[in-house]
């Protein structure tokens, strides 16, 4: 669909500006992003996750405390766990942090490189990409009744045939409702659509 293709194009542009990778958490609500994309070093991602750094990361704290863009070196937030020093050891030596949107649905992104600080023009381009991603990934305010009913039944464990029978529709009609829900939620699978609908409090 158009939104997915457009998001993929924006991410490709972000990758070109992020030699050491990037992280984008779109529309963080109730501590979890609705969509996450990252291309940081796999070893760093594993280390970061294993040490539960997400809630201790000074760059994340900055992202929740302000909107805008700043180089990592400019952000003066205590780092008692030495996360940024460890990141540098994994090749993420220089970076820029971007925060967009209201605190109730904040998008936070980081972009890194190993060789030098980001230039002002690069930071501006990265911030523009993140703002566009934030707008593209805006979750719907509501789903149709038909979409909600279909997702709820499948989420409760019903197979397609059983769910269709409960709704008094054909199995193909049920699948059409699930497909439309996936498209509206920009989800690749029905399970992903169900989780995103729950995260957005649409179910």
Write the layout of secondary structure elements.
Blueprint: H1 2-16, E1 22-29, E2 32-38, H2 42-50, H3 58-65, E3 68-71, H4 83-89, E4 94-100, E5 106-113, H5 120-136, H6 145-155, H7 160-167, H8 171-185, H9 190-199
Antiparallel strand pairs: 1-2, 1-5, 3-4, 4-5
Summarize the structure.
It contains 9 helices and 5 strands, in the order αββααβαββααααα. It is of the alpha+beta class and 203 residues long. The chain has a 5-stranded antiparallel beta sheet, sandwiched between helices.
Sheet with most strands: strand arrangement: 2-1-5-4-3
Molecular shape: elongated
Average of pLDDT: 92
Secondary-structure element order, N to C? HEEHHEHEEHHHHH
Helix content: 40-55%
Report how far apart the termini are.
23 Å
Question: Sheet with the most strands?
Answer: 5 strands, antiparallel
* Class based on secondary structure composition and strand pairing: alpha+beta
CA radius of gyration is 19 Å
Count of separate DSSP helical elements: 9
**Beta-strand proportion:** 15-25%
Low-confidence stretches: none
How many strands appear in the DSSP assignment?
5
Mind explaining what this structure looks like?
Helix 6 (145-155) crosses helix 8 and helix 6 packs across helix 9 (190-199). This protein has a five-stranded antiparallel beta sheet, sandwiched between helices. It is elongated and about 60 Å long. The chain is 49% helix and 17% strand. It contains nine helices and five strands; from the N terminus they run αββααβαββααααα. A hairpin with a 2-residue loop joins strand 1 and strand 2. It has helices at 2-16, 42-50, 58-65, 83-89, 120-136, 145-155, 160-167, 171-185, 190-199, and strands at residues 22-29, 32-38, 68-71, 94-100, 106-113. It is α+β, with helices and mostly antiparallel strands and 203 residues long.
């Amino acid at each position: 669909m158009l939104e997915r293709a457009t998001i993929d194009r924006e991410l490709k542009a972000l990758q070109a500006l992020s030699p050491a990778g990037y992280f984008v958490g779109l529309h963080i609500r109730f501590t979890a992003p609705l969509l996450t994309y990252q291309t940081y070093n796999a070893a760093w991602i594993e280390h970061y996750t294993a040490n539960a750094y997400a809630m201790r990361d000074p760059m994340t704290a900055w992202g929740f405390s302000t909107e805008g863009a700043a180089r990592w070196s400019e952000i003066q937030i205590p780092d008692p766990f030495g996360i940024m020093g460890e990141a540098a050891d994994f090749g993420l030596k220089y970076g820029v942090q971007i925060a967009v949107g209201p605190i109730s649905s904040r998008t936070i992104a980081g972009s890194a490189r190993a060789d030098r600080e980001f230039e002002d023009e690069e930071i501006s381009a990265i911030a523009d990409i993140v703002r566009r991603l934030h707008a593209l990934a805006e979750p719907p305010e509501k789903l149709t009744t038909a979409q909600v009913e279909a997702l709820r039944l499948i989420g409760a464990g019903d197979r397609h045939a059983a769910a269709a029978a409960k709704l008094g529709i054909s199995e193909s009609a049920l699948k059409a409702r699930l497909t439309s829900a996936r498209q509206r939620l920009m989800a690749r699978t029905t399970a992903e659509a169900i989780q995103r609908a729950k995260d957005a409090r649409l179910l």
